[in-house]
Structures are given as structure tokens and as C-alpha cells.
Automatic annotation (TrEMBL):
Regions crossing the membrane: none
Coiled-coil regions listed: none
Protein name, as recorded: Putative toxin-antitoxin system, toxin component, Fic family
Residue ranges occupied by any Fido domain in the UniProt entry: 1-63
Organism domain of life: Bacteria
Organism of this sequence: Streptococcus parasanguinis (strain ATCC 15912 / DSM 6778 / CIP 104372 / LMG 14537)
One function term, GO molecular function aspect: kinase activity
Amino acid sequence: MIKKHVFANANKRTAFYVLVKFLRLNGYHFSVTVDEAVEMCVKIAVESLTDEKLAIYSKWISEHSCKETGKQ
């Protein structure tokens, strides 16, 4: 979403919301500061998407995600 600019505006915000919603629907909690989220979304928007960058983004998501406990 961030790279393809599917909307006239708010592509980064929408992509971030979709990420958080996807994780929640799959039982994960995602926790970052607003500044961290903005920094990562901007990086994704401006950098070339390579396998190495994708691995970095995936690692960042994993490091800021944890399985929710006590949910049924």
C-alpha cells in the first residue's frame, strides 16, 4: 500500500492501520511509538524494496509484536 499509492492521500497511515489490524486479528499486540511508526513508514515509502529491506521490515515488526495472552 505504501509503495503503490493506492489512495490519493493517507497511504502510509492506512498501511500502518492495516498492519496493526492484521496482527490483532491474528492474536498479536503491536507496540511502537508514533515517531517509530512514522520513521519506518517513511523508510518503506522512500527506499527501494529489496529482499534485504523486506527482511529488515519483517524483523522490525516481529520485534515489536507479541502474542496476546488470555484471549479466547
